[in-house]
Write a structure and sequence with these properties.
By secondary structure, this protein is mainly α. It has one domain. Helices cover about 75% and strands about 0% of the residues. The protein contains 10 helices and no strands.
Length: about 190
């Protein structure tokens, strides 16, 4: 049962909604803008509405498996944490995209919402504050990801959930390696609303 659940979680999280929606609009987002299949690049290359749709779908594929594991199947905390990590890994390393994928931010937020709505809300507010102040999506994402496990540790005080948030933050930050290089060089693009 648990192995099947983890497999399904990975496959669901692997669905590249950004790529699919891009194709619906006649664009290959892997060859447009930053080349990423996440909501930010979709918003840049296709439009804000498409970006919001991808953001929502990517959040749901992190939220639903973890929420069901925790509140419907009543799996133990250790397994719920494993489901959370699997969802982020599935999005970032999609089997449908030759083990490439997004950067895990939206899916990570979905996971946090299922683990602790309070932590998720604080992380979202932190992300929004940094983004609105600097204009950098990547900087907001990197700092928020790093802070998520610290907040989980102090607010929820659940070892397994904290470990899941920590591992997810490592994956998300690693996926932002090229953004970090550009931020250091001062060549990172700001996301400007027109």
């Amino acid at each position: 049962m648990k192995i099947l659940y983890l497999t399904l979680t990975y496959l669901i999280a692997s669905i590249p909604f950004g790529y699919i929606i891009g194709k619906i609009f006649g664009k290959d987002v892997t060859k447009e803008g930053s080349g990423n299949i996440g909501a930010t690049n979709v918003a840049r290359t296709i439009g804000k509405k498409a970006g919001v749709l991808v953001l929502t779908l990517d959040m749901l594929k992190g939220f639903i498996p973890v929420f069901l594991a925790k509140n419907y199947f009543f799996f133990d905390d250790k397994f719920v944490a494993l489901v959370a990590i699997t969802a982020v890994v599935g999005h970032c390393y999609s089997v449908f995209m030759k083990f490439k994928g997004g950067k895990g931010v939206a899916t990570g937020i979905g996971v946090l919402l299922a683990l602790s709505p309070k932590v998720a809300l604080i992380v979202i507010l932190l992300w929004a504050g940094i983004f609105l102040t600097t204009g950098y999506v990547s900087l907001a994402s990197i700092i928020s990801a790093f802070m998520s496990w610290i907040m989980m540790n102090y607010i929820v005080e659940n070892y397994y959930y904290t470990l899941a948030a920590l591992l997810a933050s490592f994956i998300i930050i690693y996926k932002h390696s090229s953004n970090i290089e550009r931020l250091i060089k001062g060549t990172e693009h700001r996301f400007i609303y027109k």
